[in-house]
Design brief:
Strand order of the largest sheet: 1-2-4-3
Number of domains: 1
CATH architecture: 2-Layer Sandwich
CATH class: Alpha Beta
Helix content: 25-40%
Shape: globular
Strand content: 15-25%
């Protein structure tokens, strides 16, 4: 569980790196950590829940890589959009979409809120920026 604060992003990245090393997936580290950073940053920035505000992460080893999940108690569903050149934010999910080859989404979870998930894989579904 992570508090909804910017410091959680770096701590969660370190936590993911430990899993990737243990699973011998360190080669996915840069992309996977960037994906996680964007998903947690969205939860910290946009999820203002009525039921508490801790953020949870879950990582699942897949045959082709790792599934990254970020859980929060907000019902607000993030949407991928195209930000204008003048906007300072709004590109995160576009990066997630590119890095995962479109293998990400939003789903329900037990209790209030949602889970935002993404798959970082080494089977050709990743598209480098």
């Amino acid at each position: 569980m992570w508090p909804p604060a910017p410091i959680s992003v770096g701590r969660a990245r370190q936590f993911l790196a430990q899993y990737l090393d243990a699973w011998e997936l360190a080669h996915l580290g840069d992309d996977a950590q960037l994906i996680l950073s964007e998903l947690i940053t969205n939860a910290v920035t946009h999820a203002h829940p009525p039921y508490g505000n801790l953020i949870a992460t879950r990582f699942e080893r897949l045959p082709c890589g790792v599934r990254i999940e970020v859980h929060d108690t907000s019902d607000h569903k993030p949407e991928c959009r195209e930000a204008s050149a003048e906007e300072e934010s709004g590109r995160g999910l576009g990066m997630v979409d590119t890095l995962t080859g479109g293998h990400w989404g939003v789903g329900d979870r037990n209790g209030p809120g949602k889970v935002v998930w993404a798959v970082c894989a080494d089977d050709g579904t990743r598209v480098p920026l």
